[in-house]
Amino acid sequence: MYGLGLVKGMLVTLKNLVLPSRRFTLHQYPDRKVGPLGLAKHKGTNVFSLALRSPVQLAKSMVGLVSVPDRYPQHPRFRGEEFTWYEERCTGCASCAKYCPLGIIEIVTDPSGQDMQEGQKYGLEVFDIDIGRCMFCGLCVEACPYDALHMGSGFEEGRYVRNELVIHKDRLVSASKRPSNWFRPQLEGRHNDPRGDSDVAWQEAGRHEKPSVSDQEERWAKR
Amino acid sequence: MSFDNVYDIIVGLTPEGLEWLAFIAAGGILAFAVINAVVMSGAIYTWFERRALGRFQSRLGPNRWGPFGLFQPFADVLKLLSKEDVVPEPADRVVFHIAPLFLAIPVLLVFAVIPFGEDSFLGRLNVGVLFIIGVTGVNTFGVFMGGYASRNKYALFGAMRGVAMLISYEVPMALALTGVALAAGSLALTDIVESQSLFFVVTQPLGFLVFMTAASAEMSRAPFDMIEAESELGSGYHTEYSGIKFAVFQLAEFLAPIATAVIATALFLGGTKGFDPIPGQVWFVAKTIAVVCFLLWFRATWPRLRVDQIMAFAWKGLFPMSLLNMFLIAVEMQVFQDDAGVIPNGSLIVMAAINWAVTVATIVIFAHLLGQRRLKRKVPVPSPLANMAEGG
After folding, report:
1. Cα–Cα–Cα angle for B151, B152, B156, nearest 5°?
2. Residue B60 is nearest to which of A13, A24, A65, comparing CB atoms?
3. What is the pTM of this model?
4. What's the confidence (pLDDT) of residue B229?
5. How high is the pLDDT of residue A1?
6. Range in A91-95, A113-117, B74-78 the model is least confident about
7. 3-state SS, one letter per residue, for chain A
8. Is the ipTM of this complex over 0.95?
9. Most distant CA pair in chain B: distance in Å?
10. Three-class SS of residue B115?
């Protein structure tokens, strides 16, 4: 009979409303609501010991007021926002600034720097990345000849003021070194996990060992 | 608390000869209370609708701000208040400014004549049903003024569609309410509620169906939301509005289902009538919430109708149905009513049985007349390419 399709459709939506197994098709990103069992699983205990230790939180979780952090597993080659930069590896050649299609990397150098192995190099006075205009193409990372610049892995860099979106040199130096594996097969080979909790030292971030001073002189002598 | 109680208290406090002042004060106090309650319930309803719609569609809805996201409406209002109030440069400024009021005020005015309890109402208007029909007709102006004054093509399209639809659906809605007025013998809503010894939804199912359909078109929500069809028109007549004016539009839009549910409760579902220990106000609110939930369910499920389908449905479907309903009720009133002008209970059940049979028959007939014909599939002509694989 005509008109039964309306009722059929209403039953479908009613099924979505009532059946708990069909509740969510989305992954819940910042956190998710947990019941008593989920809370105990999150804390690594069972419900009974949780009831002894924190009964208030257990009662809250029964009425759906407790949420635990939750995030989707992320790919290690994610091109994230906070760039990882090794001052020890950087020579101040400004390849990244030249390759940037948007011209948002500003580098000011002076000839007074000291390389850890080779002696003299350019010292860096300014290294600013304006991620407010960045499109995360990763060309700067591809251009870096010394593997000094890496993509990061985070995406929670929202700010209220536009100026704060510029990453200055101090922040790049003091940030924890969690490089993404984007365009860095050597990190992929070493099973680097950007979302893990161990930093990558500057000696390990390169694609090969840096030649020592004596090696360089030997190579120059052959020419 | 009725108007009379408040008036008596205030008259006792005012000096002799100033009764008109007490009259205004009592009306002002009650109107203030009712409007605040209605707007607050509208705010909570926005949260409820968004959460429930989320559940219907397997997502969460607003859940971050406050327990279960309950403070979301207040955050929304604060955000809209703090936004810039942009007026387009070529807009008709005066009309542009007053258009939101033409939508919000009629919805609030509806609540003036609603009997929320046996003795709690704002006004005992003796032409209540007429008042409701007239006042809800005003929002057509609001839609057209908003669309015309913005000087935006999409807004104008939305407004033109909206006016055509709203005017068309007012006709069956008014005719469906005529059946109620005939059966109750009065236009005052308090009298209509008292006259329902058997609820009108039982004795006049066809009128109820026509009223609910026409009313959900009047408040321009899915499946009749072509006024602001997001996929086609931006957002229709309020495309150019922002800030507090947009908030007023949203308020009117979210109060409309509450107003519709309240009218349906008073006219068809017996208003405050129920079992004895529970007070009438609770019955009224419970019935209202039930109707609101049903309207929400409709919105969550059904897709939007096309423009020609909507107009055809109003004039070919609902209009004859409501005429039939009115004719049926009028004849039955003549046949069944006793000398006092009241239908006895035994006859009411007979009347309900006749009306239910007529309703089912009408729906089947109209569905077959208006429903889309199943396409007769032609026998496919064999293509010459079909035999290529066999080398033919």
Report:
1. 90
2. A24
3. 0.74
4. 67
5. 59
6. A113-117
7. CCCHHHHHHHHHHHHHHHCHHHCCCCCCCCEEECCHHHHHHHHCCCHHHHHHHCHHHHHHHHCCCCEEECCCCCCCCCCEEEEEECCCCCCCCCHHHHHCCCCCEEEEEEEEEEECCCEEEEEEEEEEEECCCCCCCCHHHHHCCCCCEEEECCCCCCCCCHHHHEECHHHHHHCCCCCCCCCCHHHHHCCCCCCCCCCCCCCCCCCCCCCCHHHHHHHHHHC
8. no
9. 110
10. strand
What is the distance between the alpha carbons of residues B358 and B326, in angstroms, rounded to a whole number? 12
Cβ B325 vs Cβ B204: under 8 Å? yes
Whether the CB of A28 is below 8 Å from some CB of chain B: the reply is: yes
Q: Are B239 and B152 in contact (CB under 8 A)?
A: yes
pLDDT of the residue at B390: 60
Measured between alpha carbons, how far is residue B11 from residues B19, B192, B197, B267 in Å?
Answer: 6, 30, 36, 33
Within the 54-73 window of chain A, which residues sit less than 8 Å (CB to CB) from chain B?
Answer: 64-65
pLDDT, mean of residues B152-165: 86
Average pLDDT over residues A67-94: 85
CA distance B111 to B123: 9
Contact B74, B223 (CB under 8 A): no
Segment among A144-158, A179-193, B230-244 with least mean pLDDT: B230-244
Decide if A9 touches B, using CB distance below 8 A. yes
Residue B216 pLDDT more than 70? yes
Q: What is the largest CA-CA distance in chain A?
A: 94
Q: Provide the angle, in degrees to the nearest 10, between the axes of the packed helices B205-218 and B243-267.
A: 180
Asked if B108 and B35 count as a contact pair (C-beta separation under 8 A), the reply is yes
Whether residue B373 is predicted with pLDDT greater than 70 in this model: the reply is no
What is the C-alpha separation between B238 and B273, in angstroms, rounded?
40
Is A82 in contact with A150 (CB distance < 8 Å)?
A: no
In degrees and rounded to multiples of 5, residue A124 shows phi and psi of: -105, 120
User: Could you tell me what percent of chain A has a pLDDT over 70?
Assistant: 90
Task: Report the residue of chain B nearest A4, measured CA to CA.
Answer: B367
Sign of CA dihedral B352, B354, B357, B358: negative
Of the CA atoms within 13 Å of residue A108, those in its CB half-sphere come to 5
Smallest Cβ–Cβ distance between A13 and the set B56, B367, B371 belongs to B56
Q: Which residues of B touch A22 (CB under 8 A)?
A: 58
C-alpha separations of B219 from B240, B248, B313 in Å:
20, 15, 16
